[in-house]
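Sorry, any thoughts here?
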Amino acid sequence: MLSAQPLIFPLLFTLDFPLEQNKNQVFKRFYHRNKTKITEIVKSIKMAMKETFYISHGSPTLSIDEKIPARKFLKSWKEVFPQRPSSILVISGHWDTDVPSVNVVDHNDTIYDFYGFPNVMYQLKYPAPGAPQLAKRVKELLHASGFSRVDEDTKRGLDHGAWVPLMLMYPEADIPVCQLSISSHKDGTYHYNMGKALASLKDEGVLIIGSGSATHNLRAMDPRNNPPPTWAVEFNSWLIDSLIGGRYEDVNQYHKKAPYAKMAHPSPDHFFPLHVAIGAAGENSKAKLIHDTWDLGSISYASFGFTKA
């Protein structure tokens, strides 16, 4: 509780509460009498974010399957990133459009954009509030950076690339969420520049998450206990080394630079959210590997954080 004192104590001077000489006693008494109001005030304060993230969300069964190692990692997210964001912007590989698009809604519906999975998965809900003001801000920043057209979708909710990881990371579903699409017919540099345009959102308390998969070849999956194949291991190792080494231009040109690039990503939709996250971190950002496990043989759950130097 006392860790909140530097933030809360100045508020004592704005409320009708007699100050005494012992600040700790004053704070304790004030806190217990005004706990609900203080919680609301703290939630409303927009503290700058220092990091952006790329999360490998893998299979939709991440939502229910306790045997997927990455599930435990995402459920412990608040230990990795304890700061509460004012809102969340998710760039998901499951929303692919011709031009950048944002969902402008007050309430997010849960989209079940997967087929043939256990019935229980279609009963899951992630009723996070929408973030229409954030959506408008994303559109404004993209326009200012030369993205001439940005569409608004006033009906779309959250696809499973957003709500599956978020239901593990922030199960309360009480933080406003906005989604931004990718454009698979573009390239890595395009999406990196998209991220650069959005970098200032971090100063507004927005948590920026790219959601995809470090490897994503659904036709090359194997039974769970199978070791990852050589092509997946080599691509994953190249990706980790390139990011940790700061060779972001190589990652932008991954289709030319990476081993087995086309095997790892027959389509780039699950890789481009990574480029947005890198660009949004800011110039000379530093990458760190925050998780690295496998499932279904070839599916890498490697996930990364990016911090501006």
